[in-house]
Structure formats: C-alpha cells, structure tokens
Design brief:
251 residues, DNA polymerase, domain 1, 3 domains, four-stranded antiparallel sheet, OB fold (Dihydrolipoamide Acetyltransferase, E2P), five-stranded mixed beta barrel, Alpha-Beta Plaits, alpha+beta, 39% helix
Length: 251
Amino acid sequence: MRWYKDRPEEGDFVVVTLTDVDKNSAYADLEEYEDVEGLIHISEVSRSWVQDMTKELSEGEKNVAQVIDAEGDTVTLSLKRVNDNNKRDTMERWKKEQKAESFIEDLAEKLDREVDDVYEDIGFRMQEEFGSSFYGFEISEAEEEKLQNLFDEDVVAAIQDVARDNIDLKQEKLEGTLELSFPQGDGVERIKEVLSDINDGVEVKYISAPEYSITAWGRTQELAKKRIDNSVRNIREKVDELDGNFEFSRA
C-alpha cells in the first residue's frame, strides 16, 4: 500500500512484520512505508520481564508497534506501549487501506487519469485529512461536505460512484419527537423560522400540533447521534430566543 508520509513520526502506531529475531532484539519491516526498517529492543517487548525474545516473537509475525524514536535510518519501536484498542484500530486501518488501493485504481479510470497522479492529488490528501483514504470513500455520501471542502464536484462524484460500487453505504438511523409551541399570535411563523435551517442528514416532519418527528442518518450510530444531538441543541436555542416552549424525546 502507499502512504502519504515517507516515514512515520514519534508516537505513530504502525503495522510491522518481524524479519529477524534474536535473544535481545528484533528487526521489522514497516508495512505502510517503503524501505523503512524498525528495531525492537528486549525492554520494549512486554510489560513483564522477558529473558529471550525468540521465545516471545517469531520471524514473519505481523504486529502493531508504536514509534518511540523516528530519527536515524532505523526506527525504534515498542510493542509493550500498544494496548488492545491501538492494535485493533491500527490493523483495521491498514487492512482497509489495502482495499482502498483498488478503489484508487477505479477512481483513476473514472477520472481518466494516471493512478500515480490520483494517489498524489486525492488518495494522499484523504489519508492526511481523515487518517485513511478508505475513510474518505466510506463517508463520501454521509458526510459529503467534508470531501467538497477538499475536491472539485467531479472528483467528489467519482469518489461516491466508486464507494457505491465497493462499500455497503447503508446508514444508521436515529429518531425522536419534538414538541414546539409559541404562545404568541405568530407562532406558526416562528416555528417556520426555527425549522428553516436543518443540518444535513437530518429531517424534521410535522405530525400534529405541537409534535414533529426528527430523524437523523449517519454512516455509524455515533455519527447519527452527533447529528441529532446537534440539531436538537440548535432548535432548542432558537426556540428559547423566540420565547417558545420546547421538548424532545428520543424514540
């Protein structure tokens, strides 16, 4: 796979393949970087005491390590500083980024451009902005505005086409009920003003006075929750400004 940086930085979590293991140290190739080698000292293998690294690690083994020193030709790595969440997230990112290689090739074909150019101008930019190019494809519909801030319309549309062909973009949904009322004579106009600017990915529908349904969609439950929470907060603030009554209940 290709990565936007030539070398990792201190603190980065990286996928490594062990190439040479002896009693006191191990060398490893960094999978996300070309021609970058790492060194793991025996003191950085485990939080418990290790006497012989060959009894703990095997050549050819893939693992996740943290970069503790990126200076010099050989990067210094640690295994003991990686927790289960770090390991899971880093492995998942690496596996998804491998899949994204074929997405970039499809994107180059759709845009009638060279693959190397698409990596430089689009793939690497998504990696730097989002942490992976795969994530850029994954959010291309649910969070379209993030891509629009980076690329022209034709590029965004092509990214969305590739994503639809390769990723299940099914979205999570959260629902709730709003109660909006204003004692003033122009209450209907005030409600229209309150609901005039609803966030992307959120829909508000009239049920019967004073009830309205609110629905938010997102690529994940977390994103859907963030959208509905932000919208409810904004609506509440507008109702308060216009001296109305507001209640919200989640479905």
